[in-house]
Amino acid sequence: MQNTNIYLPHIAKVVEIKEETQDVKSFRFEFVELKLRENFTWKAGQFLILSIFGVGEAVFTFANPQTRKEFVECSIRKVGLVTEAIHELEVGDTVGIRGPYGNWFPFEEFGSKNLLFVAGGIGIAALRSSIEYSMDTRNDYGKITILYGARSPMDICYKDKIVEWQNSDNVEVALTVDRGNDEWKHRVGLIPTILKEMNPAAENTVAIICGPPIMIKFTLKALSELGFTNDNIVTTLEMKMKCGLGKCGRCNIGNIYVCKDGPVFSYEQIEGLPDEY
Ligand code: FES
């Protein structure tokens, strides 16, 4: 449900805050207007614009899927003025939310394929809604594989969610960090290297990836070596966005606007664009 004035945010309250890591917090927001709370919906991969009154606004993806929509949830890394202000929020504080905007991961086209999620760093926040959506519509897909990498064990988000995912039927979860510690029982190494070690079958599998540009670049290379074709690789470029509305020009790459044409793209669509994503 969208406002008729595209710049007018819906008012929402912070109802829960969870500290994921030293610089990432997950926030649950609840709309003040009861009707909106019931009717507001989105699709995994879409984004919203969160306003902190008197400070500014920023683009975030929905961290929870449309199948778990009692709240709007975002996981936010502290990286600048607006996100620092968001990290100062307390339960009961008021924010503005606009959206949903953008396209979504085309689950309807994935059919009964296997799903391979590859997330680097805070990219896991953009993929969480899709991971949970696929869990909630589990019978529609084959095997689900999740490869999630972070800098260190301290930087792993969603530790409780990961346990849930690991305990789900026909789901394989692989965790890796660049640098481990004595307690770390999972893998150590860069995502593209671990991906190649895992050697997932490319046949009948869609790879859904999100992370920092350098990780995406080498993950694409690894996927190609594993036999994945460009039409079976999907990514989200949400990190490029600022206004989210086609006004600021910040998200322009070659002939596409991430906010208007995406943020979700198959690799086939973005292959050959300037190397900026
Ligand atoms: S984010 Fe401003 S034009 Fe796309």
UniProtKB/TrEMBL annotation:
Residues annotated as binding [2Fe-2S] cluster: 243, 248, 251, 259
Domain FAD-binding FR-type: 7-107
Cofactor: [2Fe-2S] cluster
GO MF annotations in UniProt: 2 iron, 2 sulfur cluster binding; flavin adenine dinucleotide binding; metal ion binding; oxidoreductase activity
Keyword Nuclease: no
The record's free-text note on cofactor binding: Binds 1 [2Fe-2S] cluster per subunit.
GO biological process: pyrimidine nucleotide biosynthetic process
InterPro entries hit by this protein: Cbr1-like_FAD-bd_dom, Cyt_c3_hydrogenase_gsu, Dihydroorotate_DH_Fe-S-bd, FAD-bd_FR_type, Flavoprot_Pyr_Nucl_cyt_Rdtase, FNR_nucleotide-bd, OxRdtase_FAD/NAD-bd, PyrK_electron_transfer
PANTHER family (alphabetical): ANAEROBIC SULFITE REDUCTASE SUBUNIT B, DIHYDROOROTATE DEHYDROGENASE B (NAD(+)), ELECTRON TRANSFER SUBUNIT
Protein name in the entry: FAD-binding FR-type domain-containing protein
Source organism per UniProt: Candidatus Desantisbacteria bacterium CG2_30_40_21
